[in-house]
Design a protein that fits this description.
mainly beta, Lipocalin, eight-stranded antiparallel sheet, globular
């Protein structure tokens, strides 16, 4: 029989949202939420548990995504912040960089 290698393991919060993914190469991706369901932040960490990339999500009072920040510590020139706007029927209509 062939050897099966485990590539990743998953951890979940009590409400079944993803909490973390641990990869065999040592990388870890963590997920943080606000109000138990709105994604607040994603962190990508290397084997030394240093954050190498993250995305932060900000919402307005009604729960619509309002702003997205992302930062790549290996390529800081690609880091950016984006404001989102919606039309009258609450559909995303513009992404401002």
């Amino acid at each position: 029989m062939g050897h099966t290698q485990k590539n990743a393991s998953y951890n979940y919060n009590p409400n079944n949202t993803i909490k973390a993914i641990h990869y065999a190469n040592g990388c870890i991706i963590t997920y943080k939420y606000e109000k138990d369901i709105l994604l607040k932040q994603i962190n990508v960490m290397n084997g030394d548990v240093k954050v190498i990339y993250y995305q932060k999500y900000m919402y307005d009072l009604s729960g619509k995504l309002e702003k997205l920040d992302q930062k790549d510590l290996f390529q800081p020139q690609t880091s950016q912040s984006r404001l989102l706007s919606y039309n009258i029927i609450r559909k995303l209509n513009l992404l401002v960089c």
